[in-house]
Specification:
The longest helix is centred in the last third of the chain and has 10 residues. 31% of the residues are buried. The chain is 6% helix and 40% strand. The protein is mainly β. The N and C termini lie far apart (82 Å). β20 and β21 form a beta hairpin. The chain contains 2 helices and 24 strands. The strands form 5 sheets. Strands 4, 7, 9, 10, 11, 13, 14 and 16 form an 8-stranded antiparallel sheet that branches. Strands 3, 8, 12, 15 and 17 form a 5-stranded antiparallel sheet that branches.
Amino acid sequence: MRLSISFTTVGLVAILAVITEAGPQTDPYVENNGVIAFEAEAYTTQVGFQEVVFDGTTSMQAVGGSDSRLDYVIQVDTPGRFQIRIRAYALDHMQNGLYLALNGQLIRAPADHPLAGTADIYLQKVGWSWDPEWLGDEQHIGPVTVDLQIGQHVFSIRKRKDENPLIDKIQLVRTSSPDTEPPSVPTNVQATPISWNSISLMWTASTDNVGVAGYKIYRNGNSQPIGTSPTPGYTDTGLQPEATYSYQVSAYDDAQNESGQSSPPAVTATLTRYALADFDQDGDVDLEDFGLLQRCYGIVPVTGACIATDLNSDGFVNLTDFDIFRNCMSGANSPADPDCWNP
């Protein structure tokens, strides 16, 4: 049954009429020219709503309890943010609210909205309107948006409190397209040994149309990165001596677009096996090396030149490293034993 409703000077008068109910939705609604559009009565499933005709317009109206809802299946092929537009008729100022849901979860104002977190939807005026707004803190602010990922989703209109505006049409209008542009390729990659088993990498920062999220570091032509860095620098540790290492770097953004790898590869000279505590790599372990150990003591996090002074590679420069240094100390101009302590 549909309700045919006519408007009079004394209010809304319901007149029952036998009208064939619209058939349910059979195929997902898809995007066309940036818009996913459908009629309110062409639902997939519904609970507690009925079809009404008001001034020649077929609409849906909640007549059930708090679980009343209209469900629609939509198909998204390209992720993005969509503005939710609903042509609805508010009967009065106490009948102009509703909830929206996606896959069974209430849609809430996004974190970048002034009313972030609210789920209350407010129709702008009594009568017909198109663009609902978020309601909260005694104010209402639009637009109402939702972020949609690739796939099928169930979009729902739900009853809010005892409110039952007439719902005519729904449009999901794309407001942003996904970021598909990768960052620029990192340049000027420099690889510098800072100890017999670690190499420091530096490069010129990449640029991106939205923003660079970080960098991936590749070693010796391998297809899998050895690590990532949020900034244009990285320290590769735990390397073997008497070996040559080459590096390439790529940049990526929050949408996981990745640039090409830097070229040509940055190559270091063969790492030479020095005594573990020979920080200045002059062949002996003496007071000059001890000075660096003293300067790095207690620094957290251990970075730069201080990485070499973390002799047991535990992430700290502490008394344990002083004990190791004492065992390795040879004195000025006295050859140090490369195997004084084997990490």
